[in-house]
Each structure stands twice: as C-alpha cells, then as structure tokens.
Amino acid sequence: MEYRNRTALITGASGGIGEQFARALASRGADLILVARSEDKLVALADELASRHGVRAEVIPADLSIPGAADKVVAEADSRGLRVDVLVNNAGFGTFGYLADADPSRIRDEVQLNVGTLTDFTTTYLKRMADAGTGAIVNIASNAAFQPVPSMAVYAATKAYVLSLSEALWSEGKRKGVRVLAVCPGATDTEFFDVAGDGSAMKSRRTTKQVVDTAFKALDAGKPSVVDGLVNRIGAYGARFAPRRLVLAIAERTVS
C-alpha cells in the first residue's frame, strides 16, 4: 500500500504501539492525525515527525473513554479539512484483578474505550473509505482475544470482540477496496501493564517496532488478522483446540 500523500489517524498515539505506528507511517510519507489524552506528548511527537520527515502532523487531544468522543474527533478532523485514508485504532487499556473486586466506573471506561470508541471510529471511516473505494483500518486486538483470561476477564472479552469485528469487516471491506486488519500482540514493551495494575507481569515482551513491522507485513499481504511473534502464534493456535479448563488454567497462571 502507498502511504505518501495519504493521511493516517492514530489513536493512543502518545506512546507504545500507537507512537511506533506514527513513526512508521511518517517514515513512509503519510501525514498524521495524532489522538490521545496527553496533549504535550502528542505535540512533541508531531513536531519531531514533521521536522524529520516533512509530513503534516496534526494533534487532536481527546479522552476516548468518554462516550461520543470519537464523533467529536471526527468533527474536528473534518473542520480542519482532513480526509482519513488510514485508521489505526490503538487506544485501549486493561484492568487487572477479579471482576468482583473491580471499580464499575473503571470497567465502563475500559469497555467504552476498547469497544465503543473503536467501533464508532471504524463505522464512520469504513463508510467513507468504502465510498472512496480505498483505505485501510488497523485495529489493535491482543493475543488475549483467543482465550478467556481470569484476572483480565473484561480486557480479554473486549479484544475478542475487536478480533471478531475486524475479521468480519475484512470480508466486507475487500469488496469495497478497503483493507481491514486485526493485530494481536502478546506482551509488549509498553506502559500497558503499569496501567492495568500489574507492572511485574510477563517479563518476556516483544518490542513495539516488532509489532508494527508485523502489522505492515500482514496489511501488505492482505491478511484479515495477524498474531505477532512465533511463541504467541503457537499459543493462539493451541488455545483454539485445547480443553477449556486447561486453557483457563494456563491463562490464569500466565498473568498471575
């Protein structure tokens, strides 16, 4: 896919996988719309990438865990005359611990961000891309999408939704010239586990660059989904066929 003279909107762009996508897309000549809560980080990244690669980099700060936030971002992008050719739905977070002990408001934010806002962005821009006959949507799911995960039950469920939605839209989108890809990273070297409340979890992590490189290869190959890393692919495959009690026991041991 050619990215030069196209515009990519990236959510959760202030760090981690989202930031790496921004860097990779800018290096390919794409203009950027960077979206996250951390305006200072976004501005610094936008200035750096615009200077280094000669691309246009716009910043739209937003708390995407608030219902209706996606519509406001879309309206702001429209008001600036920005057409989105590539959408990267990266923003998301997970909570760690038993659901019975969780803060309900925190769970609502998790579901809204991981599912609601992602779906809002996808619905709006998929229609526009289909009308234009071109475009790409990359939704960041997780290796957790392939099995239930005790102590991260809601997170895994939201990512199963993202995977299922994206693969279905891959089939719908290809008829309209739109590529849709679900990316399923395993443990990655980001702030994710600190936000989830389990900063010590899963010490063996892939880098954000490895994840993004995997995503671009899969997008170029026209795949509906991709799991990053050989070990993660083996785990995802095994989770589909192993007895559920065994899958649950392994998942619980992995995150504990």
TrEMBL record:
Q: What are the recorded GO MF terms, alphabetically?
A: oxidoreductase activity
Task: Specify the domain of life of the species encoding this protein.
Answer: Bacteria
Q: Could you tell me which residue ranges the Ketoreductase domain spans?
A: 6-190
Q: Which UniProt keywords apply?
A: Oxidoreductase
Q: Name one Pfam family in it.
A: adh_short
Write down any Gene Ontology CC term: membrane
Kindly list the residue ranges recorded as spanning the membrane. none
Record family assignment: Belongs to the short-chain dehydrogenases/reductases (SDR) family.
Extract the PANTHER family matched here.
Answer: DEHYDROGENASE/REDUCTASE SDR FAMILY MEMBER 7B, SHORT-CHAIN DEHYDROGENASE-RELATED
What is this protein identified as?
Putative oxidoreductase
